[in-house]
């Protein structure tokens, strides 16, 4: 590893830790500030924080790797994500921001679910918390896997050391700075990712001679990689597009909508966020695609397709610039890990500890418990990441589907259908999560393909969850007058804002 790259990466770490310390004073004032930033995020921070925490290491490692191996047929995932993110801004963001504040100022999703449906049994809060804790711990491990691979490939360091270094830096600034630190670091990391995902494919394209030589080289290797439908089926395309459904149920993205300072800021946030996302996704896909021609032309060794971005950054740029570009990989990884750690910690603190173990816990005590939970979840995720052969894209795919199916239909219907009940919500969470797990692990094959290979598990999970919510809600007791009043109040606020 060149000295210049070490300097750039060291500077990046210092900046992240500095932001964490800067945010410490504000986040230490209370649990709402620590877990939700006091609902004071501006539109730019909201947009880039949501985008950076969403995209994670899979955008600079998993997605380029998929394009490198399969060509343009894997671009459908990007199309589905853009559609899903845009619809999420339009349908969910404003109503969720308004409703979570009206519903007793709910600062976590499980807390909102309990308040929205007046669930006296508390089952809704327990089950949703368990889903968040399980799936997010798995999801966090995917980011730590990415950190381990980065240090292994760049520094020739032990993979396990990479896991601990990546997790340690994230834990420190998340531990002290809370939601404000996570959001501010996400903003900086989003900017770094944006520049890197524009710069790397453009320079690599110049190295292979431009667009025409690129296409000619890829065609000579495998012409099917130039065809978006080659080797795919209708079900495969639907599965890729269905990634967009996951947005409606991702707690680490939805919490950004809950934290924005006003409904008026959402339009600006949407424009910034979608512009960032489209350019970044195109850059990530272009990196993998141009990498096909670059590797073929130069004959360089690429042992893991998911490290194509790292390879191009190291070979094409001065060490100081390469260090900055490699910081983009860390930025993508850390932005998601920190968001997931904080959401999982908030669920453990507010929805388990305070709700069931110590109802009289003070603000200071809850912040302390939240910080302890950050460390605990990180350690579990590190243990799960010890399998260095884990596919980042596969881990993310499973967790994304789990959240999308368990929470997606519930979030949408809870914001638009007044008749929805607590029993219906509970049925939707359980059916969605169980369907996804069954689809992934059931020993059932169709023409030699597992259920998950046949169609992405979020599709049946989302459909069956929706059916369960509607069916159970219709046969259960209608909502109370206070629930109807709160729902109408939310609609009135959204109409004005």
TrEMBL record:
Q: Where in the cell is it found?
A: Cell inner membrane; Cell membrane
Membrane topology, from the record:
Multi-pass membrane protein
Q: Which GO terms describe its biological process?
A: proline transport
Sorted alphabetically, the keyword list is: Amino-acid transport, Cell inner membrane, Cell membrane, Ion transport, Membrane, Sodium, Sodium transport, Symport, Transmembrane, Transmembrane helix, Transport
What this chain does, per the record? Catalyzes the sodium-dependent uptake of extracellular L-proline.
> What family is it from?
Belongs to the sodium:solute symporter (SSF) (TC 2.A.21) family.
Name of the protein in its database record: Sodium/proline symporter
